[in-house]
UniProtKB/TrEMBL annotation:
This is tryptophan--tRNA ligase. Keywords: Aminoacyl-tRNA synthetase, ATP-binding, Ligase, Nucleotide-binding, Protein biosynthesis. The chain holds residues 74 to 415 of 415 of the full protein. Belongs to the class-I aminoacyl-tRNA synthetase family. GO terms for molecular function: ATP binding; tryptophan-tRNA ligase activity.
């Protein structure tokens, strides 16, 4: 069976971008593949963070995965830091990753510019090597993510190929290994729509956890009133009717796309339904669709978080299964790189 892995950082609240760009696709694809979903707590410390919040956010993020429909009878759900091999492999990979590759990363440039010199730790630069480790440890075939992770996935592929070339094949065989490739080279799965959900207050910037204004995003756990209020105040335009794909109407395209994904309709159906609508009517429509879609998720979230033993059990079992796969890969890498066996 082909394998698929993905994860979300436990920073801030999970929003519609995370859901439509990634988590919703995990659910749609989890029956087709063997899946592992992790909460990347080690990535969450790459910018200044609140120690009092980290553990809670990690659990809450796990609860959101389950509430959104991740099926623990099929998928392994676990916390990144609970499987030590992630950090260990990262060190090995970082020896084969030129600094120049990391300096080119758009997210590193953006985040370090915003954070200011004092707050830019080495880990912010090496962040994508840890991400490569998350993926390569499991010999993953596919990684469902939003558009903003595409460059990190390309880097992961390059690191995998470089390690395969440097240490795989006949060289590895001479060391007593099986020879051949060390890592499978993974492919990103980026959805045709929803891969880049934009801010509610500016159709040209992406919806993000770190944007200062909460009005710019719909969080999965927002109550009905908050959703209605955010949609009421979101940015619109004064063109007649509503349409997809008009470059002069980024907000319109974004809201129609959200409506389409949330309602489960096709683009054509939505285009037709909304072509003669005014904003007032459409805002009521999208608000109702959002509330209807998110309500059951919120109910399940409450159920899951009310029983902490259940969630702990899921995470322990997930970490156990993940560790087995991860250890096997890690042992191969140590062997191929010529380390003395323990
Ligand atoms: P993170 O936590 O920033 O985002 C989690 C997922 O949500 C997607 N996403 C979006 N999709 C559409 N529109 C948006 N506005 C939007 N904002 C976020 C992201 O693309 C992502 O899929 N580095 C990763 C986490 C990670 C990871 C991994 C992912 C660490 N290791 C291994 C996959 C595999 C991150 O910070 O995602």
């Amino acid at each position: 069976r082909k394998r698929m892995v993905s994860g979300v950082q436990p920073t801030g609240s999970i929003h519609l971008g995370n859901y439509l760009g990634a988590i919703k696709n995990w659910i749609d694809l989890q029956n087709a593949y063997e899946t592992l979903f992790f909460i990347v707590d080690l990535h969450a410390i790459t910018l200044p963070y609140e120690t009092q919040q980290l553990a809670k956010s990690t659990r809450d993020t796990a609860a959101i995965y389950l509430a959104c429909g991740v099926d623990t009878t099929k998928a392994s759900v676990f916390v990144q830091s609970h499987v030590r091999a992630h950090v260990e492999l990262m060190w090995l990979l970082s020896s084969a990753t030129p600094i120049g590759w990391l300096n080119k990363m758009i997210q590193f440039k953006e985040k370090s510019r915003k954070a200011g010199d004092e707050n830019v730790g080495v880990a912010l630069l090496t962040y994508p090597v840890l991400m490569a480790s998350d993926i390569l440890l499991y010999q993953s075939d596919f990684v469902p993510v939003g558009e903003d992770q595409k460059q990190h996935l390309e880097l992961t592929r390059e690191i995998a190929q470089r390690v395969n070339n440097l240490y795989g094949g006949r060289k590895w065989k001479k060391l007593g290994g099986r020879g051949g490739t060390i890592f499978k080279v993974p492919e990103p799965l980026i959805p045709p729509s929803g891969a880049r959900i934009m801010s509610l207050t500016d159709g040209l910037s992406k919806m993000s956890k770190s944007a200062p204004s909460d009005q710019s995003r719909i969080n999965l756990l927002d109550p009905k009133d908050a959703i209605a209020n955010k949609i009421k105040r979101c940015k619109t335009d004064s063109f007649p009717g509503l349409e997809f794909d008009n470059p002069e109407r980024p907000e319109c395209n974004n809201l129609l796309s959200i409506y389409q994904l949330i309602s489960g309709k096709t683009k054509e159906e939505v285009a037709q339904e909304c072509q003669d609508m005014n904003w007032g009517v459409f805002k009521n429509l999208i608000t109702d669709a959002l509330v209807d879609h998110l309500h059951p998720i919120q109910v399940r979230y409450e159920e899951i978080t009310s029983d902490s033993r259940y969630l702990d059990g899921v995470l322990a079992e997930g970490a156990g299964k993940a560790s087995e796969i991860a250890e096997a890969t890690l042992n191969n890498v140590y062997q191929a790189m010529g380390f003395l066996r323990r």
